[in-house]
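pipeline/complex-builder :: batch 7 item 3
reading input block
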Amino acid sequence: MALTRRQWLGGVAGLAALGVGAGGAARYWLGRARPGAGHDYVLVAAPLAMELVSGRLSEAWAFGGSVPGTELRARQGDWLRVRFINHLPVPTTIHWHGIRLPLEMDGVPYVSQLPVLPGEYFDYRFKVPDAGSYWYHPHVASSEQLGRGLVGPLIVEEREPAGFAHEATLSLKTWHVDEQGAFLPFMVAREAARNGTLGRLATVNGITRPTVDLPAGQIVRVRLLNLDNTATYRINLRGAAEGRLYALDGNPIRPRALGQDYWLGPGMRACLAVKMPPEGQEVALRDGSMRLGTLRAVAHAGPAGEWPAPLPPNPVAEPDLASAEVLNFNVEWVGSVSATGDNGRPPSLWQINGQAWDVTDKTCADRPIARLVRGKSYIFELKNMTQYQHPIHLHGMTFKVIASSRHSIEPYFTDTYLLGKHERAQVALVADNPGTWMFHCHVVDHMETGLMAAIEVA
Ligand SMILES: [Cu+2]
């Protein structure tokens, strides 16, 4: 029995639990207890004419009338309730990157929900267990939808103030536009088979090389979010400022100097504390040797800032490495550029353990690449058999990076690990969230040409 969209919407909008038909549809979970009525946010996705190139308008798509989208904020442990309204000409969803939430709020089409059609709405309601910097984006036709601007920050504040008096969110994104501001192809097969298709125009908060005013002499929490489809930024500061990393991808670390370059892959975030220089001085925020933007120190009354204590850990279960089962995941390149897609289907270029995901096949999630027993600990042995790097992201759960063939690792929790070329890495987790979870590369071209799989926890 196929579930019609009307029935689906009725089940979500009404309070009645709806029995769902056979087959894959059993994954659609309905009728959970709801928190109080109302929303914290009404978020509309709609076309937006944006001036990315001076004097030209680009036909972007935006959440809440801006790119990046509305900055959503919630307090750790609280509910976040977002009524999402689709005013785009295409179906879409919202995925909440890095948030540990129930499957039916995860925004993956045909796995956790049906796509939200033009003119329809969907109520996303979930608790946010972990403080940190997160983000949201569709999980449908991702190269175009993220490429046109459907990305936004989601900030979960610590339960108690973390000791930062000042903060700024800087969302990094490149745009696939030409000199006239017209969109270029978001995915080119020969690029998808390599690093991914890069945008040409780099922006911070939607602006090319902006100047951001920050208080002189103060320590500012700078939340850097890589919301790009493809680019890995090699983050560094130039100027009389000191930068320390306090959290990676939402999870606290023992604070350490930013150092030469921090590699921030697609989907990844860094919480950087920056000690601003005296008034009038500037600091360049750079990607390698390229300036992304300028941090300008402006007058601020009051004593100089002190470095805050480390951020409190999030309540993520500690994997038991002694009893953990080891699972191997081999990332391979299989395609050739001639394997271009037909019938509107993207080419198949990448796979995990010999299986390529097909974004046009709604049944892929019925064939999980691994079945995990709820409550058990696992070590994922990630092996990159390619000469390209892949930011490997898992939905629904946070994992702990414990070892790498390329770097010395001080173990830390994250949702995305940038797996370097030919690298082997070990990450561990407790399989504590039941559901069918996407496990994929966050280079969107790679994900859409095979580098995605489902992991079941039951
Ligand atoms: Cu990849």
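note: The pocket of copper (II) ion is lined by residues 390, 441, 443, 446, 451 (CB under 6 Å).
queue -> next item
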